[in-house]
Amino acid sequence: MNKVDDWKTKVIYQIYPKSFKDSNHDGLGDLNGIISKIDYLSNLGINMIWLTPIFKSPNKDNGYDVADYLEIDPAFGTLEEFEKLVALGTESNIGIMLDMVFNHTSDQHQWFQQSLNRNPVYDDFYIWRDGVKGQLPSDEVAFFGGSVWEYSEKRQQYYYHSFDKSQPDLNWANPQVRKSLSEVVNYWINKGIKGFRFDAIDNIGKVIGEKVTTDVNLTHQYLSELRANSFGKYSDVVTVGETGSADLANAMRYTNPDTKELDMIFQFELMNLDGIRNGDWQQRPVDLLEYKRIVKKWQEGLSGKGWNSQFFGNHDFPRIVSRFGSDASSDRILSSKMLATLLFALQGTPYIYQGDEIGMTNYPWESFEQFNDVESLNFIEIQKNKGLAEAEILERLKVNSRDNARTPMQWSSDQFAGFSDVKPWLGENPNYHSINVAESTQDPNSIYNFYKKLIEYKKEFQVFSDGDYHDLLPEDENIIAFKRENNQEVLTVICNWSNEKATIDLKSIDLSFDKLLISNYQIEKDCLSFNQSVILRPFEAMILYKKKGEKHE
Fold it and tell me: How big is the CA angle at 38 (ends 37 and 44), to the nearest 5 degrees?
């Protein structure tokens, strides 16, 4: 692999700072807490830390409402502490990726406050509209529920917000907005930042007509300009865009190796398969045939033409083992390892969300008062107004609330999961007594050590990064099986998605291999052989390796 593509071998670890590690006894995670765990992350083997927003914020949406892009929120620490984190990361070959929320700001941002006052410099920084005969400008609905329009008594106009009313959308049609945002990126590059994740970036290209609509061509135009004026000048800065609505054609436009606007994207087609992001928040079984069809489309469609991110969850989704595997005590470890196998075996950059490497699960919610997330709180009110029973609302929150991923990191079996020595800002999962880092790092068969081994293989074998994808069992309703192949190597990946035994008929499938790289069951590597069929145990997963041109079984 040539030097230009070195970043494709990276493994990125997402940290939700508020929930990672508290160092100053206030129940909130902070920068010094992250600093104290650099050795843990280095030992895991990751290459980059993606930090969700750490900028000054009133925290109506846990930092995704930025009040100042150039200031560290005092709740997390100081700029000097941040610079120390960057320096220590560099010493451990770990870059820092910042989360840039450029679709909107907080309503407390000075740009918005100046716009409220009709300061001519900032008057057009946001999207303002008059009402229509005393009514809202249009009937569009925000992502978090309710109208996209909020009235300002001070300005006597409505402003547009795609998300919460505390998050007014920036007007990217204004060249001064685009210039100001490129200056923000350059400021942090000068501080040693090696990566940027752009939040909801496919939402920035807007046409303001009778309704406000997104125009993907404008988004591409704006991103190209941002790249040219900031991160595109640096070969060692990695970028990823949250483009939840991207189809394959637009993904190629975003990440085309020759004309790219970004290095990679997050697209959510796979994340919508169980329906929990539908308006009713009701979880439905994953259709594995549809899952494999989507995987095949993206793996084949982007090969050599773009680059994708691989992830099963993040701060915006429930815990991956609770959602896609099984958090039952007998299945949690096996299904966590099965999901990890898929995460690393598919082409794309793998993202590990904090705690997934030890198999953290959803929280056992019992009341509305336990929730913190603005989206969940809005959902409660909306569903109450619709007449849905509170017990049913709670059941839907249990499987879908973003707070599931935001409970404190479980470091040990000590009080408060070793996250803090005082009560955390959000309740710690009571299963921390058995699910924690201290135990996982000592157990050679733990989920943590499984992740660690996969990270080692990702770096050791080039085929993990550049191998072509070949689906082996497109019609099997329980088993995912595929090959990854380049000019020198072949990986064969087999995963049983179910909690029941499953059988592979080998009449039409070549499972020849030189060695078993990894399995989530204890298998004597020298004793593994396939005859006419393979019987997979519940959630069984394995990766087989073959060097081309060498003798194999």
Answer: 95
Token reading at 284: 């439905």
In terms of pTM, does the model score above 0.90? yes
3-state secondary structure of 506: helix
Q: What is the pLDDT of residue 130?
A: 94
Instruction: Name the token pair of 214.
Output: 């997104």
Q: How far apart are CA 200 and CA 103, in angstroms?
A: 6
The DSSP string of 267-299 is --TGGGTTSTTSTT-------HHHHHHHHHHHH
* Best CA proximity match to 493, nearest among 476, 516, 461, 475: 516
Q: Please compute Rg for the chain using Cα positions.
A: 24
Q: How far apart are CA 292 and CA 420, in angstroms?
A: 41
Instruction: Report residue 294 as tokens.
Output: 């989507």
Per-residue pLDDT tens for 149-203? Answer: 999 999 999 999 999 999 999 999 999 999 999 999 999 999 999 999 999 999 9
Q: Are 204 and 198 in contact (CB under 8 A)?
A: no
Q: Tokens at residue 506, please?
A: 């080998």
Q: Which residues contact 548 (CB under 8 A, 6 or more apart)?
A: 487, 488, 489, 490
pLDDT in tens, 267-309: 999 888 888 877 788 888 899 999 999 999 999 999 999 999 9
Q: Is 466 among the residues known to form the active site?
A: no
Residue 177 to residues 180, 254, 288, 315, Cα–Cα distance (Å): 5, 21, 44, 28
Average pLDDT of the segment spanning 442-448: 97
Phi, psi of 110 (to 5 degrees): -60, -30
For tokens 């404190």, name the residue: 408
Catalytic residue, from 30, 164, 199, 485: name it: 199
pLDDT reported for residue 553: 47
Closest C-alpha to 274, from 318, 243, 308: 318
Higher pLDDT pick, 494 / 553: 494
3-state DSSP percent of the chain in helix, strand and coil, to 5: 35, 20, 45
Residue 366 CB neighbours (<10 A): 10
**DSSP SS3 for 169:** strand
- Give residue 273's pLDDT: 85
Residues contacting residue 464 through CB under 8 Å, at least 6 positions apart: 9, 344, 345, 457, 458, 484, 491
Question: Among 107, 150, 202, 242, which one carries the catalytic annotation?
Answer: 242
Instruction: Provide the 10 A C-beta neighbour count for residue 502.
Output: 21
Give yes or no: 99 in active site.
no
What is the amino acid identity at position 456?
E
